[in-house]
Specification:
Blueprint lengths: L1 E4 L4 H13 L4 E4 L7 H6 L7 E3 L5 E2 L2 H11 L10 H30 L7 H20 L10 H16 L9 H13 L3 H4 L4
Parallel strand pairs: 1-2
Antiparallel strand pairs: 1-3, 3-4
Helix pairs in contact: 1-3, 1-6, 4-5, 4-6, 5-7
The structure holds glutathione.
Glutathione binds next to helix 1, helix 3 and helix 4.
GO molecular function: glutathione transferase activity
Organism: Martelella radicis
Enzyme class: transferase
Length: 199
C-alpha cells in the first residue's frame, strides 16, 4: 500500500498516525498538491491528499474513507469503537477536527492561491469564526487519554499539529486544556512528536 501525502497536511498526519498505531506498513509517497502529479490525479480526480493506493490498485480517498479501510485491515487494534453511541461520538470528534482543519486550510489557501488585491477578509473571518467555535468546544470537551486511542485522538492530533505549524501562539491563549493536550497526547502516543504536521 502506498499513501500519497504531504508532511504538512493535517489529514495526511491523521492517517499516518493511525496507520502507525495500528502497526500497518504503508509506503509514504510525498506529493506537491500545488502542481498535482499525474499519479495523484489518476488516483484521485480531486487532486487531494491523502490518497491511498492499495496493493490491488484500489484507490481510496478522502481521509475518513482511508481511516475506515485501515480500521478493518488491522488485526488487534481498532480506530472506531464497536458500540453504537461510543462509535458515533468518536466519528463526530473526527468530523469536528476535520471540519476545523478544512477552515484552517481555507485560511492558508486564501493567501496561497489568491493575489493580495483579491483577498476577501469577510470570507477569512467566517473561517476563523468556525475555527474559534470549534476550538472552544474542544477546549471544553477534549478527548480523554485514559483509555484506548481512537480516530478522534488522531484527528485532533492532526489538527493541533497543523495549528502548531501554521499558527503557533494564535490558538492556545485562554484554551488551557487544549494547549496542554499535545504533551499529554505525546505521552500516550510518542510518535506524535515526529508524525505531526511539519515541513
Ligand atoms: N476532506 C478531505 C480534505 C483533504 C484536503 O483538503 N487536503 C488538502 C491538503 S491538507 C489538499 O489536498 N489540498 C489540495 C487542493 O485542495 O487542491 C480529507 O479528509 O482527506
Amino acid at each position: 500500500m502506498k499513501l500519497l501525502y504531504a508532511t504538512a497536511s493535517p489529514f495526511s498526519a491523521k492517517v499516518v498516525m493511525a496507520a502507525h498505531h495500528l502497526g500497518l506498513d504503508i509506503d509514504l509517497e510525498p506529493v506537491d498538491t500545488v502542481k498535482p502529479p499525474e499519479a495523484l490525479l489518476a488516483a484521485n480526480p480531486l487532486g487531494k491528499i491523502p490518497t491511498l493506493v492499495t496493493d490491488d490498485g484500489l484507490t481510496l480517498y478522502d481521509s475518513r474513507t482511508i481511516m475506515h479501510y485501515l480500521d478493518r485491515l488491522a488485526d488487534d487494534k481498532r480506530l472506531y469503537p464497536h458500540k453504537l453511541e461510543k462509535r458515533a461520538a468518536v466519528e463526530r470528534m473526527e468530523a469536528l477536527c476535520d471540519g476545523i482543519c478544512d477552515a484552517v486550510v481555507l485560511v492558508v489557501y486564501e493567501k496561497r492561491y489568491r493575489t493580495p488585491e483579491t483577498w476577501h477578509q469577510p470570507w477569512v473571518d467566517r473561517q476563523w469564526d468556525k475555527i474559534r467555535r470549534g476550538l472552544d468546544y474542544l477546549d471544553e470537551n477534549p478527548p480523554q487519554l485514559k483509555k484506548k486511542l481512537n480516530a478522534g485522538h488522531f484527528a485532533l492530533g492532526g489538527l493541533i499539529g497543523y495549528l502548531m505549524l501554521r499558527f503557533p501562539g494564535e490558538w492556545e491563549e485562554h484554551r488551557v486544556r487544549l494547549a496542554r493536550w499535545p504533551s499529554a497526547f505525546e505521552e500516550a502516543f510518542p510518535a506524535f512528536r515526529t508524525l505531526k504536521s511539519h515541513v
